[in-house]
Amino acid sequence: MNEKGNISIHTENIFPVIKKFLYSDNEIFLRELVSNAVDATQKIKRLASLGQYKGELGDITIDVAFDEEARTITISDNGIGMTAEEVKKYINQIAFSGAAEFVEKFKEAKDANEIIGRFGLGFYSAFMVADQVEIQTLSYQEGAEATRWVCDGSTSYEISEGNRTTRGTDIILHINNDSEEFLAKGKLQDILEKYGKFLPVPIRFGTRTTSEPDGDDDEGKPKYKSIEVDNIINNTTPAWTKSPSDLKDEDYLAFYRELYPYSMDEPLFWIHLNVDYPFNLTGILYFPKVKNDFEIQKNKIKLYSRQVFITDEVKDIVPEFLMLLHGVIDSPDIPLNVSRSFLQADSNVKKINAHITKKVADKLAELFKGDRKGFEEKWKDISLFVKYGMLSDDKFAEKANDFCLVRNTDQEVYTLKEYAEKVKDIQQDKDGNVVYLYTNDIAQQDSYISTAKDRGYDVLMMDSPIDAHFVGYLEQKTEKTQLKRVDADVIDKLIKAADSKELQLTEDESKTVVSLFEKAISRDNMKVEVDALGENELPVTVTIDEFMRRMKDMAQTGGGM
Ligand code: ADP
Ligand code: MG
After folding, report:
1. 424-443 pLDDT tens trace
2. Is the pLDDT of residue 120 over 60?
3. How remote is the CA of residue 41 from the centroid of ligand 2, in Å?
4. Residue 325 pLDDT greater than 70, yes or no
5. Are strands 413-415 and 434-439 parallel, antiparallel or unpaired?
6. CA dihedral (277, 279, 284, 290) positive or negative
7. Where does 224-371 have alpha helices with state H?
8. GO molecular-function annotation terms (predicted)?
9. Which distant-in-sequence residues (6+ apart) come within 8 Å of 521 by Cβ?
10. 109 C-alpha to ligand 1 centroid (Å)
11. Per-residue model confidence as pLDDT tens digits over 380-409
12. Higher-confidence residue: 156 or 505?
């Protein structure tokens, strides 16, 4: 078997165009080729489990290797492999037709990821870094022959007999002069870790040195010797792929450290996302400890698709206010090659967004209900998310209304409803609005705060930067309520509506007063009324019916007294 052919597209040399266009993001060639190796391995595992592949599965580890002298990078898998026919079909036809279309349309494309996604150029991203790409492959099918395919980045390819003796595929990249940086251990390790840290099939990149116990020395102290072990890049079963019921708190914390090895803090709590309808999505979102509002890092959430890292730019998938969270989101419904314009257009993305918001709100509500004290302790750290969320998302605000807390200057904590109840009667203005007093600077407003408290009023703490916005929000969302920064003038204008409404005398006391008056005056048609509320200037009124009747008569005849 030895066949040469030409691909029938008009542009003579498309790869320089692709190369140039994709240049900014050229490290993704490794993501694409390793994902293909993972796919091929998952396929053979699936065929084996279905009983359609009867051979030994054997070691399925994927190897990534490089040779500085030969200037090659090789990705080898023990997956399903390809027959010569399949190479022609999957590598030549599909990709070349994609590439041809690309040449026509590349001017519209906005970023490199979009091109790869739209035109199925995953495999061809290899030409961003290689001037020659070679495939050595042997299909799992019985009687298949080893096949070699070579392409030098022009539109011509060559297929001949290959040298693989075991099932699977090697992709050999002959690295071009501009891409020498990739022929370095550290660089490749970094890229593999970035994209492949949680791939479902083990990825080996050479060996690494570690130490292991080696008995005791003469003084009885343990000795260690250094040994070479496989340098495995990935954890094939990251926490988010497991069932929440199989995970303990330690597992979630350990996974957090795996995600952010350099983070010193532990997360406050987490939410394990697990959706399969109407879209697939798994993930774990962590609430970080917040030291102050300016210190939190955004963009810490990592987006995965089938355990392949895509991006940590999750702006369009995660609602803005939740960008402050950390963790992982994995959805096969988000294609490997996402681009900004794709995300904005995709309806799944909107649903994902809404779902995450709902999940986070539900989790917070559950925490609040289940352990209010614990929730109050965490409030300092989560209040920013909650307030930010309420300001920016009505649906979230609806739910958060029940667990959003406010704190007064005595460090007492209330829900919004509780607080409204607390001050509704004691702090009103002359128009009957409830007035919430707040301070945004406890030191500066100290004397006003004391005055307010001396008069029995309550002052809220609203001293974080987001509170500047939250004050306005609360005022707008709370009926007949105004928020006023505490000062002498504001305090003076307050009316204690409740003072006047509260009963000054109990019912029994009122009755005693009435009978005392009745006994003392003792007249017929007399009516004694006690002002139990203390609303009138006269605490007791005595009216005599006859007198009232005469008054009325006079009023009707127009006479005076
Ligand atoms: P995609 O992965 O999106 O299908 P690619 O351009 O990355 O597109 O790959 C094209 C096709 O080539 C794959 O669908 C697969 O059929 C075949 N292929 C690529 N790499 C391998 C491999 N390592 N083993 C088996 N088949 C492969
Ligand atoms: Mg691919």
Report:
1. 888 888 888 899 999 999 88
2. no
3. 13
4. yes
5. unpaired
6. negative
7. 249-259, 340-345, 347-370
8. ATP binding; ATP hydrolysis activity; ATP-dependent protein folding chaperone; unfolded protein binding
9. 542
10. 23
11. 888 988 999 999 999 999 999 999 999 999
12. 156
Overall average pLDDT of the 472-500 stretch = 81
What is the rounded radius of gyration, in angstroms, for the C-alpha atoms of the chain? 37
Ligand nearest to the CA of 171: 1
Nearest to 102 by CA among 86, 124, 133, 132: 124
Indicate the pLDDT class of residue 276, thresholds 50, 70 and 90.
confident
- Backbone φ and ψ of 557, nearest 5°: -85, -5
pLDDT in tens, 168-211: 999 999 999 999 999 999 999 999 999 999 999 999 999 999 99
Look at residues 125, 29, 116, 38 and name the one whose alpha carbon lies nearest to residue 308.
Answer: 38
Q: Whose CA is nearest to atom 19 of ligand 1?
A: 36
pLDDT at residue 500 tops 50: no
State the alpha helices, DSSP H only, in 166-286.
185-196, 249-259
What own/partner pairs with CB < 8 Å and gap ≥ 24 does 291-298 have? 293/384, 293/464, 293/465, 293/466, 294/465, 296/324, 296/384, 298/323, 298/324
Q: How buried is 353 (Cβ within 10 angstroms: 0-12 exposed, 13-18 middle, 19+ buried)?
A: middle
Detail the residues annotated as belonging to a binding site for ATP: 32, 36, 77, 82, 97-98, 169, 340
> What does pLDDT average to over the chain?
84
The yes-or-no verdict on residue 5 having pLDDT over 50 is: yes
Residue 474, H or E segment: helix 467-477
What average pLDDT score do residues 17-35 get? Answer: 77
Contact 487, 439 (CB under 8 A): no
Task: Report the nearest-CA residue for atom 23 of ligand 1.
Answer: 37
d(CA 115, CA 124): 11
DSSP-based three-state secondary structure for 272? strand
Atom nearest to 36 CA in ligand 1: 20
Whether cis (ω within 30° of 0) applies to the bond prior to 213 is: no
Q: What's the residue count for the chain? A: 561
- Taking the centre of ligand 1 as the mean of its atom positions, its distance from the CA of residue 274, in whole angstroms, is 29
Q: Which residues line ligand 1 (CB under 6 A)?
A: 32, 36-37, 40, 77, 79-80, 82, 90-91, 94-95, 120, 122-123, 169
Give CA separation, 111 vs 21, 182, 389, 400, 407, in Å.
Answer: 8, 22, 31, 38, 48
Inter-residue contact 157 to 150 (CB < 8 Å): yes
Mean pLDDT for the stretch of residues 7-24 = 56
Q: What is the pLDDT of residue 560?
A: 40
Name which of 396, 363, 353, 354 is nearest 271 in CA terms.
363
